[in-house]
Amino acid sequence: MTSLLNVLKKATPVLMLATAVSYGSFAAAATVEEIKDKGFISVATEDNYRPFEFIEDGKSTGYDNELKALVEKEAGISLKQEIMPWAGILPGVQSGKFDMALSAVMVTDQRRKAFDYTTPTAASQTFYATKAGSDIETGKDLIGKVVGAETGSAFLLELKAYDKKLKAEFGEGVAEIVEYHGYPEAYQDLALGRLDAVVNTDITLRTLMEERPGVFELGTAIGAPGYKAWAVKKGNDAVLKVVNDALLKVRESGEMYRLQEKWLGTRYENMPVDVN
């Protein structure tokens, strides 16, 4: 870099432009052809977010992982995967460490500023869950309560927005918002009575009810209906095209809906094609 700057300082404007363009080409994003020649795309996937992606018997499984296998087959390339906690996934994509977040990323206006999305993989809405027998029956009943959510999640942002809504309408909001690095710990604290409620997507909370019947209860929605999708850094058009072309074929064939029914308990056949 130092030698390049020295050349540019001594160069004519025309030479400076030509050199800068040439140097910049080394940093340019890979093309579709280059991606296919390389044979893989690097992706990051969450390690404990049922039913979308989680580890069971030492293996990655869940809706997104089975969808990944179909996309690999359709695209003819590998989605080279690293399993990690949610907190590191989007920062890793934004920094360029990973090409894509192959995870149940909630589509939000704020995230659209930094990321582009594939065709949606599921519909989603933010709900709260309580311990069975709780006196919380409506969103208004969260006033004065301790509520948990995952750090860096869209659900945390929606909880904070809902808290502001409560304060604007009723003059008071939740007593405390507690952030967690993962939902299993939040659910444990809810079961132990350290939390009054936890917010998450309705899909995941329904899975929680099935896995631990009689322990938790599903509350009501506190957020607007939305969608989940895989995400790439904004402007990474080639990676988006390779993955999205394959994902759309999987969707058009009906295989996406088959996996939705298997893992999510329903089929989201009326989702839009594009959520960007």
Strand percentage, roughly? 25-35%
Q: Kindly give the count of domains.
A: 3
* CATH architecture title of the largest domain: 3-Layer(aba) Sandwich
User: Which spans of ≥5 residues are poorly predicted at pLDDT below 50?
Assistant: 1-27
Signal peptide: 1-27
Protein name: Transporter substrate-binding domain-containing protein
Organism: Marinobacter salinexigens
Family: Belongs to the bacterial solute-binding protein 3 family.
Overview of this protein structure:
The protein is of the alpha/beta class and 276 residues long. It has three domains: 28 residues, no CATH class; 131 residues, Periplasmic binding protein-like II (D-Maltodextrin-Binding Protein, domain 2, 3-Layer(aba) Sandwich); 96 residues, 3-Layer(aba) Sandwich (D-Maltodextrin-Binding Protein, domain 2), CATH 3.40.190. Strands 1, 5, 6, 7, 8 and 14 form a six-stranded mixed beta sheet that branches. Strands 11-10-12-9-13 form a five-stranded mixed beta sheet, sandwiched between helices. A hairpin with a 3-residue loop joins strand 2 and strand 3. Helix 1 runs antiparallel to helix 2. The protein is globular and about 60 Å long. The protein starts with a helix and ends in a 12-residue tail after the last helix. 39% of the residues are buried.
Keywords:
276 residues; 5-stranded mixed β-sheet; signal; D-Maltodextrin-Binding Protein, domain 2; disordered N terminus; 26% strand; globular; 6-stranded mixed β-sheet; 14 strands; alpha/beta
